[in-house]
Design goal:
The chain is of the alpha+beta class and 103 residues long. Helix content is 49%, strand content 22%.
Length: 103
């Protein structure tokens, strides 16, 4: 069975399944990307840094708490917090991507 999502390269139009790769950049920034196996064109997927990874771990713990909660009012409050933190992560990751793709 093939792993990853099937895509077509914008450059050579070859079809392949995404195989995510990772590399470390400066300031503890990790880039996640994939490469076309035919023409070697690289596609950056996303960037994380220490703050993003810490917030992602926090969100994961909040989700675990959410699953265990039975009180609907408490679940609603926690769901709002999770969504707020996810929005923060999205902004942080967009800023990292912009910094590392236009720099």
């Amino acid at each position: 069975m093939m792993e990853g999502m099937a895509v077509h390269c914008d450059n050579c139009k070859g079809g392949f399944h995404i195989d995510l790769q990772h590399r470390w950049l400066e300031d503890s920034v990790e880039e996640t990307y994939f490469t076309c196996p035919y023409c070697q064109t690289e596609y950056s997927s996303f960037y994380t840094d220490t703050n993003v990874r810490e917030k992602q771990r926090s969100i994961s713990k909040l989700r675990e708490r959410f699953t265990a909660l039975k009180d609907p009012a408490k679940r609603d409050v926690l769901q709002e917090r999770i969504e707020r933190e996810q929005a923060e992560v999205k902004v942080m990751m967009a800023e990292l991507k912009q910094k590392h793709t236009t720099g």
